[in-house]
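Quick start: what a row looks like.
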Amino acid sequence: MTLSVFFQDYLPRNENFKMHLNFTMGTGLPFGLRGNNTVFRNTYRFDPYHRVDIGFSLLLWDRKLSASKHPHHLFRFTRSAWTSLEVFNLMQVQNQAGNTWIKTVFEQQYAIPNYLTSRRINLRFRFDF
């Protein structure tokens, strides 16, 4: 089961600046040994997943609002232009994505965890034509 909550708002005196928060939580999925092993199929469980993302967006150009005031603007060829700065995995949680299974010569299997990325910063430009 996964729960995600997305919240977005703008500054009261400047609607061109927006901020958003995204909270995601999930229960740990069950897993077991690889193959057709029905006895030990779901004996283990991943740790619960949780993550917080935050982002800030700024409207650089809007044709409806600015075309008459700034006819020679750099972005006049677009309907709107936005720039965003986002921080993914703000709390730098080490969430597990899966396992790599290693088998020994004695037919024993070991699960080596694979983790998702840590904190990432993303700068984005968006142009609507």
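That is the whole record. Residues 2-128 form one domain. The chain has a mean pLDDT of 88.
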